């Protein structure tokens, strides 16, 4: 079997780290529907808590031990507090934060603050073309034609910190209040859906504006010397989520548009801009003998960096300037998009991506009858098959992005536990087979 990829060499807190890492793993939209989840099986109603020790082992990081926990719905129905710490022979990390805190004396403003400090062995970056000129005879590292041995790798730090302010518009499902209240039985929605009937932001679904300020610092400790990079950027985005149940959609659609910009302030490496569009659509085929739900989920994502440019030297070598770092912007590969490839395997000026998943929510739940596992609050298991296609390119055109595309396919086992979707994906591409453990659907 292929290598085990543990959330970008950060953590495998699985169930409880889901609220901790989406800020760093910002492939999914930065905005989300503000919601409270009321499980009829839980006496505390919207309150959920979980503490879980864990261990994981990877080829690069060795054996690591950790513990994490989360509290949801205690101070405010939609608010979550979480944290985790883990360490191994070389690696160590601590992270946490607060999500969806409704600001005092407001009904629609929500603040989230979260981050992580860590040190990891053998960090890998398919990058370098913005530092060292690449000969004209060699593809740029991370480009569509590059090979998977064109990377930088060394021990080093990887730290990040995000703060975001979201505003829920007073239209559609949030016309009367800033959050949506979902009621579940056996993990299935029994309250009225928040969207999916008609595509009209004034009548259906939730619309959210987000302003996110995000910071990244990463270092590589080579024998010849250290190499590091810093990001201090801002993202402004608009989400319209017209799905029936935003945590596990079965019908409806969602659209997210955003612009990210780093003005090269403080100690940022350089200035760059990235424009992003993410769209998803869901079709329900109803119940069957063995399934509560049968869902076809489709996703399309595209992006473009107008600041990205190439400088050519007299010898034909090229140097990339004003580009987003390899793990931001037009990037493919990893636990969200193109899961059959390494994390952040491809990146360039422009990108296009599409995915289809068939999600089969099982009626059978063997954990339901195991008393010592009831603390997981596991409502259902879901079997998923998926295919993906994507391409990065040096220009935004059909000729560039719709030829020589990359493909992969895979299967996934997912579960709804304590109101969170957790997943273990196995994906295969022409560069290998990867296993990813993550929280939330990829879209």
Structural overview:
The protein is an all-beta fold and 443 residues long. It has one domain: Porin, CATH 2.40.160. It is built from 1 helix and 24 strands. The protein has one helix at 398-401, and strands at residues 4-5, 35-39, 48-58, 62-72, 80-88, 92-102, 109-125, 152-168, 180-185, 188-189, 206-222, 225-241, 252-263, 271-284, 291-304, 309-312, 318-321, 330-332, 346-348, 350-362, 378-393, 406-417, 420-429, 432-439. The strands form 4 sheets. The protein has a 17-stranded mixed β-sheet, with no helix packed on it. The longest helix has 4 residues, at 398-401. The protein is globular. InterPro entries: Bac_surfAg_D15 (IPR000184). Residues 229-428 form the Bacterial surface antigen (D15) domain. Its main location: membrane. This is Bacterial surface antigen (D15) domain-containing protein. Pfam families: Omp85 (PF01103).
Characterize this entry briefly.
The chain has 443 residues and is mainly β.
Unreliable stretches: 1-24
Taken in chain order, the helices and strands follow as: EEEEEEEEEEEEEEEEEEEEEHEEE
CATH architecture: Beta Barrel
Instruction: Round the mean pLDDT to the nearest integer and report it.
Output: 89
Structural class label: mainly beta
Shape: globular
Structural Rg: 21 Å
| Sheet with most strands | 17 strands, mixed
**Helix share bin:** under 10%
CATH superfamily: membrane protein fhac: a member of the omp85/tpsb transporter family
State the domain count: 1
Number-wise, the strands total 24
